[in-house]
């Protein structure tokens, strides 16, 4: 018998049909893009969803995916999803631009739930949902609202709601894009690249720490900033603005009268919480709040000078090695239970 190549990745899209957004607006056809690694088993219970951060697509966690890695494709069918608004999922730059509905994290998750049942069948059970930053926002909403579908969740650099620091940084970054004359009140003919570059430069210091910045040489700092600036200019401006607005609107308590504890006590599944100790964009106090109210939570604070970016799957980085070990332990314990 020929064994499937679990290292192979298949890029696909799935149309979930009409979709109504929580804040109003509707699309007659909403597309979800994804990358699939590994195979779904006969009992359809080894699906592991990986969800992207604000600036990321379905490839943001690739370094954690593969045979023998944290998200082990020998054991799991790992599906890395593009959330609404970026990658190969439906997004403003498909044509609607500013007329594309404002969307939020719960919209992303409702669309993903429709995608899972539509693409893999209504009896498919999700072994785990996982993500970092906005990916953790989505994973937490999954655990709250779809406890019947989800066996476990992994939250890297999470929060119960977008912090005031994050909201302020997002507001500044999106404002500066719109200050570029090329923005033209949103009716641009060429991308407002000066604004996008400025947004990336402005946003970068919040993603790391003062100590890390001061440890860099002048040229290394410029290289690090340049990487963020380059990523920002790869976005369409309307896609960038809508995505960051969605992330900054995150608040799990919104459907529960502002009661965070009430939202979190709905989580029935196991959860691994992995904040980075020096994160100033999403402070660890919010991650601790999740651990306090989730009955079956494991909390591990990741020491790092890299701040919010300390979760990234960088080969040889002690943070990535710790995160990988904790994920493997968590998934192994879940398999045994």
Please give a structural write-up:
The chain has two domains: 9-162 and 252-336, Rossmann fold (3-Layer(aba) Sandwich); 164-248, Rna Polymerase Sigma Factor, Chain: A. 38% of the residues lie in helices and 15% in strands. The chain is built from ten helices and twelve strands. It has helices at residues 105-120, 134-145, 164-179, 193-207, 210-215, 218-233, 237-248, 260-264, 284-293, 318-336, and strands spanning 9-15, 19-20, 26-27, 31-37, 47-51, 65-66, 71-72, 77-81, 126-132, 152-156, 270-274, 297-299. Helix 3 runs antiparallel to helix 4 and helix 4 (193-207) packs across helix 6. The radius of gyration is 19 Å and the shape is globular. The mean pLDDT is 95.
CATH fold call of the largest domain: Rossmann fold
Task: List the uncertain runs.
Answer: none
Tell the overall outline. globular
Give the oligomeric state. Answer: single chain
Biggest beta sheet attributes: 8 strands, mixed
Task: Tell me how many strands there are.
Answer: 12
Physical arrangement of strands within the biggest beta sheet: 1-4-8-5-9-10-11-12
What portion of residues belong to β-strands? 15-25%
Summed up, the domain count is 2
Rg, alpha carbons: 19 Å
The assigned CATH architecture of the largest domain is: 3-Layer(aba) Sandwich
Q: Write out the CATH superfamily name of the largest domain.
A: Alpha/Beta hydrolase fold, catalytic domain
Q: Which CATH class of the largest domain applies here?
A: Alpha Beta
Average predicted local confidence, pLDDT: 95
SS summary, helix count: 10
> Structural class, please?
alpha/beta
User: What share of the residues lie within helices?
Assistant: 25-40%
Order of helices and strands: EEEEEEEEHEHEHHHHHHEHEH
EC number: 2.3.1.31, 2.3.1.46
GO molecular function, one term: homoserine O-succinyltransferase activity
InterPro entries: AB_hydrolase_1 (IPR000073), AB_hydrolase_fold (IPR029058), HAT_MetX-like (IPR008220)
Keywords: Acyltransferase, Amino-acid biosynthesis, Methionine biosynthesis, Transferase
């Amino acid at each position: 018998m020929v064994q499937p190549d679990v290292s192979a990745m298949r890029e696909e899209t799935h149309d979930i049909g009409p979709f109504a957004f929580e804040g109003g607006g509707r699309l007659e056809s909403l597309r979800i893009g994804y990358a699939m690694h590994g195979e779904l088993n006969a009992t359809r219970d080894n699906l592991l969803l990986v969800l992207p951060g604000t600036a990321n697509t379905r490839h943001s966690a690739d370094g954690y995916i593969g045979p023998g890695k944290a998200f082990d494709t020998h054991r799991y069918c790992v599906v890395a999803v593009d959330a609404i608004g970026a990658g190969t999922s439906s997004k403003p730059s498909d044509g609607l631009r500013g007329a594309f509905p404002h969307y939020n994290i719960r919209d992303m998750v409702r669309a993903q739930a429709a995608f899972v049942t539509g693409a893999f069948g209504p009896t498919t059970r999700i072994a785990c949902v996982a993500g970092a930053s906005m990916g953790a926002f989505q994973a937490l909403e999954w655990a709250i609202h779809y406890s019947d579908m989800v066996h476990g969740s992994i939250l890297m650099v999470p929060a119960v709601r977008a912090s005031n620091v994050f909201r302020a940084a997002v507001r500044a970054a999106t404002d500066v894009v719109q200050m570029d004359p090329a923005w033209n009140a949103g009716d641009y003919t060429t991308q407002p690249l000066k604004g996008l570059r400025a947004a990336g430069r402005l946003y970068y210091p919040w993603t790391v720490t003062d100590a890390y910045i001061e440890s860099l040489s002048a040229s290394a700092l410029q290289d690090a900033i340049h990487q963020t600036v380059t990523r920002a200019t790869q976005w369409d401006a309307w896609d960038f603005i809508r995505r960051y607005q969605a992330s900054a609107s995150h608040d799990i308590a919104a459907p529960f009268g502002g009661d965070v504890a009430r939202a979190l006590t709905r989580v029935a599944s196991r959860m691994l919480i992995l904040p980075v100790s020096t994160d100033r964009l999403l402070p660890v106090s919010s991650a601790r709040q999740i651990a306090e109210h989730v009955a079956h939570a494991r909390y591990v604070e990741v020491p790092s000078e890299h701040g919010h970016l300390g979760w990234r799957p960088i080969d040889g980085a002690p943070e990535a090695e710790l995160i990988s070990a904790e994920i493997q332990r968590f998934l192994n314990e879940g398999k045994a239970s």
